Amino acid sequence: MFQKILIANRGEIALRVLRAAKELGIKTVVVHSTADADAMHVRLADESVCIGPPPSRDSYLNIHQIVAACEITGADAVHPGYGFLSENAKFSDILAAHNITFIGPSGDHIRTMGDKIEAKRTAKRLGIPVVPGSDGAVTEEKEAKRVAAEIGYPVIIKASAGGGGRGMKVARTEEDLEIALATARSEAGAAFGDDAVYIEKYLEKPRHIEVQVVGDGAGKAIHLGERDCSLQRRHQKVWEEANSPALNEEERARIGNICATAIADLGYSGAGTIEFLYENGEFYFIEMNTRLQVEHPVTEAITGIDLVHEQIRVASGGGLSVTQNEVRFQGHAIECRINAEDPRTFTPSPGTITHFHTPGGLGVRVDSGVYSGYKIPPYYDSLIGKLIVHGRNRVECMMRLRRALDEFVVDGINTTLPLFRDLVGNPDIANGDYDIHWLEKYLAKGE
Ligand code: ADP
Asked: I want to staple 298 with a disulfide (CB 3.0 to 4.6 A). Which of 58, 60, 333, 350 is the partner?
């Protein structure tokens, strides 16, 4: 087992990882920018190292500073959290060259899944169902038209190097296609420095369903069921639940086993998420994230398995703590992402939190790094906390969520809490009846 883990992140996820390390009796080091000197994870860690000024590129993305912090403190492993360097293959490789363990998959697996064309090819080879589309990159208009005619309109053009929902264009007719192809390529080139694009069938009303997997790097892997993250705004997840209200047990086992087998065959090490669009009973792979996700606590709630413990165990060569047969799915869990944003316009709202009171009681978990008097720096993501609620079934979970949202107090800044208070009372949400476009339509109506 590791002696000392360095946590290369900030906010709620830094605290989340720190808690897991403490439980396992491992010493913790956190790195932070000058803007985060007062952060909770800095206060709770055994050691902290300031690695630079507020902008992420000078601190949380500064690989040299982070490696230096490992050397100075004698950390033998790094947990990258999510975002920042968590899917940076070069970071994983550099740590390996310094004999420091990256708590995550190999650089090669990160690289394969980071290139969306390569990821889709790999998924297909491993028996994972994919969205019908071009075999690889498409550059010629003639080729694009041939593929689109074959799969049928509408189609979507996506950047191979894409991420965060950027660089995607929908074409409904052959005339649209010419413009869409040209725009997608130039946008991809400008945003990612790589103008490779590919074509997929555009699904009109899918749900976003993702499967949590963990591999031991030695050919064994398990799945921990799925999460439904269909409630999104601008391709950003807002509300996540497990299990998906749309799946039955048989479908869950089928897609879960396909994913676990694929991950085992790949020799994948660590936690990962295989994302699908789901429509008319069919799953279509869109991408794989080779890291811990923001929404991982809903999976923890229904399985009772600590995903960060598993990540650390696997990375240290200790293997998985459970077999697939031992995994049980119990009850239902929902997560709301509390952002420091206006609940309608989503404009960021940094500033000082004058009062912060979190809900409690059975089945309620709050993961947050903020506190009363905390000043939110304007440089980073606006997520200030996550409310995760668990119940024996979805109805109980929703009742508890409504109660917990009522108890939650964040004064001094705007947050997305009022949006969630509206959503728990909505009949479509109560029925689990929504797709990936539901939230945008709801917000547009201004109900
Ligand atoms: P990114 O890596 O940029 O997040 P994804 O491939 O994960 O890109 O897609 C992000 C979102 O875009 C999906 O959650 C979905 O809302 C939409 N999307 C992607 N592919 C399709 C498709 N073939 N049909 C319909 N919507 C899609």
From this structure: 333
The residue nearest atom 13 of ligand 1, judged by CA position, is 235
Q: Using the structure block, give the residue that is written with the tokens 């040299």.
A: 64
Active-site annotation holds for 291: yes
CATH number, domain with residue 317:
3.30.470.20
Backbone angles phi, psi at 69, to 5 degrees: -65, -35
Ligand 1 centroid to 286 CA: how many Å? 7
Final residue of a structural domain among 85, 111, 144: 85
Give pLDDT tens digits for 220-274: 999 999 999 999 998 899 999 999 999 999 999 999 999 999 999 999 999 999 9
Numbers of helices and strands, H then E, in the chain: 15, 20
Instruction: Report how far apart, in Å, the C-alpha atoms of 17 and of each of 140, 143, 311 are.
Output: 46, 47, 10
In this structure, is the dihedral angle defined by the CA atoms of residues 408, 411, 417 and 422, taken in order, positive or negative?
A: positive
In a domain, 355, yes or no: yes
Among candidate residues 16, 185, 207, 291, the one labeled active-site is: 291
Which residues 6+ apart lie within 8 Å of 303 measured at CB? Answer: 224, 225, 327, 328, 329, 330
- Give the residue from 183, 201, 219 where a domain finishes: 201
Range of the domain at 221: 207-445
